[in-house]
Each structure stands twice: as structure tokens, then as C-alpha cells.
Amino acid sequence: MTTYQKRRTRVKCPYCDRDAELITGDKLYPRRADLYTKKFYYCPHDDAYVGCHVGTSAPLGRLANAELRAEKVKTHALFDPIWKSTMMSRTDAYKWLAEQMGLSVANCHIGMFDVDQCKKAQLIILESRYGDTGES
User: Fold this and answer.
1) CA angle 110, 59, 43 (to 5 degrees)
2) Confidence of residue 135 (pLDDT cuts 50, 70, 90)
3) Strand pairing of 48-51 and 21-24?
4) Is the Cβ–Cβ distance between 8 and 20 less than 8 Å?
5) Which domain holds residue 43?
6) 114 and 84 co-located in one domain
7) Is residue 61 a part of any domain in this protein?
8) Nearest to 61 by CA among 73, 49, 76
9) Are residues 86 and 120 in the same domain?
10) 47 and 73 share a domain?
11) CA dist., res. 107 & res. 102, Å (int)
12) Exposed end of the chain (fewer CB within 10 Å): N or C?
């Protein structure tokens, strides 16, 4: 295990600016035994959480409340088929999305998006797939 993996990452809630708690999945998902040992950062004040990379305490993205979690699910539902269907690699799909959104590749990851960025990504993907969606 690397020093990075041993060190606890300090994660702040973007909604209340309090430190998030490092918890295990049994606290968030009491009916999902497969998630019991997985790590999450959780803010009980805002019901916001994010999972951690396997075997580490490094967050997968930013803490998300219910609204943001719902938007991330919608965004992944549109984005993931692009690379899972082998239209392009996952890396190339994120490069394409970064260019479309005017972000650097390093800052383009759905796990780090806020609600507005998720909605923008959804619109970009829909427009690329179906042409003008009628929204402006």
C-alpha cells in the first residue's frame, strides 16, 4: 500500500463546507451486503456522499446530494454507451466531452461535475446523437 493510500484524504462537503465523515457502505446501504465494506465520504447534514477508489480512501469525485446524484445517473446513462459500445475508448470519449464543454481533460469527469455541468453534458451528448434537441 502506498503512502497516498494510507493517508486519509480530507474531504469537505461542497454544500455546508464541513468535513465529510469516512464511513463504510453498511451505513448508507444497509440492504446491500455487497457494499458493506466499500468506503464512502458522507455529510449527514446534507445527505451528500461519494464512494472511494477500491482499496483507498481517495474519493471517486465530489460529494453529491440527491439532486446531483440523479443528474449524474442521467449523464452516465447517456455518456457510458459511447465508450462501452466501442464507438471510442473511455479516454477518447472524455477527451471529446472535454472539448465540447470547454474543459481540460483533467477537469472533465462526471464524478466531479455539478448539476449544471451534468445538464450541459447531457445536452451535448443528445445533440451529437440526435441533432438539435430544440433546447437553447
Assistant:
1) 100
2) low
3) unpaired
4) no
5) 3-51
6) yes
7) no
8) 49
9) yes
10) no
11) 10
12) C
Q: Which of 8, 43, 42, 10 lies closest to 25 in space, CA to CA?
A: 42
Return the residue matching grid coordinates 463546507.
17
- The C-alpha cell of 86 is what? 466501442
Q: Which amino acid is at 122?
A: Q
Q: What is the pLDDT of residues 55-109, one digit of tens each?
A: 999 999 999 999 999 999 999 999 999 999 877 999 999 999 999 999 999 999 9
Cβ atoms of 20 and 11 closer than 8 Å? yes
